[in-house]
Design goal:
The protein is of the alpha/beta class. 22% of the residues lie in helices and 26% in strands. It is found in: Secreted, Extracellular space, Apoplast.
């Protein structure tokens, strides 16, 4: 290091600055020499704990690592701990004979009032009246927290908190035990995984100027999902005049417990999610709603997926878990949260829309959607410009600092969807002096549209309309346009329509299990919102609103969570699998025109790869007639069937597993759907057999007969027996399905599969299961 020589006393301020620079360089050099640390999750065989240690925590801190490195200790849905360690330390701990598995902490992402009626619920009738709106059921919501002051979380006229509740209302920034009540009965926050990730990676620590170190919601997503599942009646609800009416959740009297595992602009860490599962099950929740999924598009094996592991621990204790399917549609095999004990939910539209129009200078009017609520353009025509004519991708996408104010000032700007938030593009246009925006879908989004509360006049249009507008611009010397906003329109047909963004099958891990399981409302859903940010979520959005309108499978999953609460309240002895079965076998595959549901992305009929068993219909799910139940042992047999050994299965189930001497078949899991996979190399007839067992939950003395819709001509589906007789003493019946087809003559559809169905009916109930036939290459 060079020697500093001063001819006189150095100026104090200058000396301090130089000293700070030298010190920072020394610290940087020291830090760069240190091994990097990351967070890891360890699955430990709890039964191996020596009796000398009073708790597992004492054991872990004595034999595995010191207490300062441990973030969470898991002891309910999972046994083990998470800790911040170097690779060498992990390698050493992994050699311990009690360690069953190790996986690195991963960051996941959120899958971002008329809908209860659209599900078949009416005041004082059907499921709402018979379940007392779910008042004895507790829904745990894993998300970004809650804004407890919203009317949706009022406890007016609610009875006492269920006595089995053991949870707490954690104190933190702008949150105290008084923030909870008889509606919002518990709230916790989990930040250790996030903070460890921030200290060792590119994330920022919790910024308390934009986030709350407490269960309070700085993002809005958690408040929205919680009130979607179980919000109380809120009269005169709207978002800037849109969707006016009464806002309410699916289970308005169900109790809510909030588990904040996701942090603003930072995602959600597996170690924190697993800790939330542990806490929620211990606290006594009946339903868990989790609108979170992998952010890398890669499906992890169940034994390396903390959501799959945590949810198994919950389901095995009777807790129903509803999860979002993801928003990576319409691409095939994009569905996430694939474990067969999870209920995986895709998204559809409801019969409400927020139309807007683009009126071009040539007189053509093109339809779109918008939630813009500012000053209208009042029919004035403005020059129309498409920055993408430059050939620069960032220009066409209206990315930050990409627009030349000289080209867009005073004009309506066409921006392509993608790469940045939809509402952020409008802000870029506004900063450059534009007066309005047309947001055009690309091929991947097709005609799928969602409304946004834009900061400038904006109309979102489909890919076809976007191409027409760009063609008009390129072929016209002085292209002009204006935008008109039509407010809220009810009674839209067709509905439901499969949302273009809703993730699709087939199941990328085990195609024998059809995923998603079903779809529910997830487009333009009105629900409560935080007071920390405006409806766009942008820092520059100074507006505040009690409610917001969002779209995503994140919005669909809490609809199913609320539905599960109502079903659990009406049928407290039903298992999570029975509740899912009731939803799936009564789901509708027709829209409100009595036609097959269409796919928003293509305009063609959708398939079970898109919607699973169909769209949630709660009016029918209350009384399904028969259910397909699944026990913990059935799930273990399934894991054996897919090749997991006893030690690997123990990572998921916590208990040592014994696989049957005769290996089970994965397709024989008692699921309410059937997937027949024929070998693509077969040159003749192929056959696949399934065994299913149904439990009668309707009238004791019932007789059901089978009805089959074969997937295609040349495919036969036989069912034995074809008649099921139930009595007071006989509540379960099994049957065998045989699917046979000549693979030489099978012509698969665009999705690479053919689709049919099997239904049991007693004259009142119709218990329907989709049948999927596909061909696979041998391994």
């Amino acid at each position: 290091m060079a020697k500093l020589v001063w001819k006189s006393t150095p100026p104090p301020l200058l000396f301090t600055v130089i000293l700070a620079i030298l010190l920072s360089q020394t610290l940087f050099a020291y830090a760069s020499d240190q091994p990097s640390k990351k967070t890891f999750i360890f699955r430990v065989d709890s039964q191996s704990k020596p009796s000398i240690f009073p708790t597992h925590y004492h054991w872990y801190t004595s034999e595995f690592t010191d207490q300062h490195r441990i973030l969470h200790v898991y002891d309910t849905v999972f046994h083990g701990f998470s800790a911040v360690l170097t690779d060498d330390q992990v390698a050493s701990i992994s050699q311990h004979p009690s360690v069953l598995a190790v996986f690195e902490d991963r960051r996941r992402q959120l899958h971002t009032t008329r809908s209860p009626q659209f599900l078949g619920l009416r005041n004082q009738r059907g499921l709402w009246s018979e379940s007392d709106y779910g008042s004895d059921v507790i829904i745990g919501v894993f998300d970004t927290g809650v804004w407890p002051e919203r009317r949706s979380f009022s406890d007016l006229n609610l009875g006492p908190i269920p006595s089995r509740w053991k949870g707490v209302c954690e104190r933190g920034a702008r949150f105290s035990p008084r923030s909870c009540n008889k509606k919002l009965i518990g709230a916790r926050y989990f930040s250790k995984g996030h903070e460890a990730g921030a200290s060792s990676g590119p994330l920022n620590p919790i910024n308390e100027t934009i986030e709350f170190r407490s269960p309070r919601d700085a993002d809005g997503h958690g408040t929205h999902t919680a009130s979607t599942a179980a919000g109380r009646y809120a009269f005169q609800a709207n978002m800037s005049g849109y969707a006016s009416g009464i806002a309410k959740g699916v289970a308005p009297k169900a109790r809510l417990a909030v588990y904040k595992v996701c942090w603003k602009n930072a995602g959600c860490f597996d170690s924190d999610i697993l800790a939330a599962f542990d806490a929620a099950v211990n606290d006594g929740v009946d339903v868990i709603s989790i609108s979170i999924g992998g952010g890398d598009g890669i499906a992890s094996p169940y034994y390396l997926d903390p959501i799959a592991i945590g949810s198994y621990g919950a389901v095995s204790r009777g807790v129903f878990v509803s999860s979002s399917a993801g928003n990576d549609g319409p691409s095939g095999m994009s569905v996430t949260n694939l474990a067969p004990w999870l209920t995986t939910v895709g998204a559809g539209t409801i019969d409400r829309d927020f139309p807007s129009e683009v009126i071009l200078g040539n007189g053509k009017t093109l339809s779109g959607v918008s939630l813009y609520a500012g000053a209208p353009l009042r029919g004035k025509m403005y020059q129309l410009v498409y920055p993408g004519k430059s050939g620069v991708l960032s220009d066409s996408l209206c990315m930050e600092n990409s627009l030349d104010p000289r080209l867009v000032r005073g004009k309506i700007v066409v921006c392509d969807r993608g790469s940045s938030p939809r509402v952020a593009k409008g802000l870029v246009v506004k900063k450059a002096g534009g007066v309005g925006m047309i947001l055009a879908n690309g091929i991947s989004n097709g005609e799928g549209l969602v409304g946004d509360a834009h900061l400038i006049p904006t109309c979102a249009v489909g890919a076809d309309e976007g191409d027409m507008i760009k063609s008009y611009i390129s072929s016209t010397a002085n292209p002009t346009a204006t935008l008109e906003f039509k407010g809220t329109i009810l009674g839209i047909k067709p509905a439901p329509v499969l949302a273009s963004f809703s993730a699709r099958g087939p199941n990328g891990l085990n195609p024998e299990i059809l995923k998603p399981d079903l779809i529910a409302p997830g487009v333009n859903i009105l629900a409560a919102w935080t007071d920390a940010v405006g409806p766009t979520g942008l820092d520059s959005d100074s507006r505040r609103t009690e409610f917001n309108i969002l779209s995503g499978t994140s919005m669909a999953a809490p609809h199913v969570s609320g539905a599960a609460a109502l079903l659990k309240s009406a049928h407290p002895d039903w298992s999570p699998a029975a509740i899912r079965s009731a939803m799936m076998t009564t789901a509708t595959i027709l829209d409100n025109r009595n036609q097959p549901m269409i796919d928003e992305a293509t305009g063609n009929a959708s398939t079970p790869y898109d919607f699973g068993a169909g769209h949630l219909n709660l009016g029918l799910a209350m009384d399904p007639g028969l259910v397909y139940d699944i026990t913990n042992n059935d799930y273990v047999d399934f894991l054996c069937a897919i090749g997991y050994g006893p030690k690997v299965i123990q990572v998921i189930t916590r208990s040592p597993a014994n696989c049957p001497a005769r290996k089970p078949l994965p397709e024989n899991l008692n699921y309410p759907s059937l997937v027949a996979m024929f070998p693509a190399s077969s040159r003749g007839s192929s056959t696949k057999m399934f065994i299913r067992t149904v439990t009668n939950v309707g009238p004791a003395n019932s007789v059901y007969t089978v009805r089959v819709q074969a997937p295609a001509t040349g495919v036969t589906v036989s069912v034995r027996p074809s008649r099921l007789v139930f009595t007071e003493s006989v509540k379960k019946r099994s049957y065998v399905v045989t699917v046979t087809g000549d693979t030489r003559n099978l012509k698969m559809g665009p999705s690479g599969a053919l689709f049919g169905s099997l239904s049991w009916t007693d004259g009142k109930h119709v218990v329907r299961s989709p049948i999927v036939l596909t061909q696979i290459e041998p391994l």
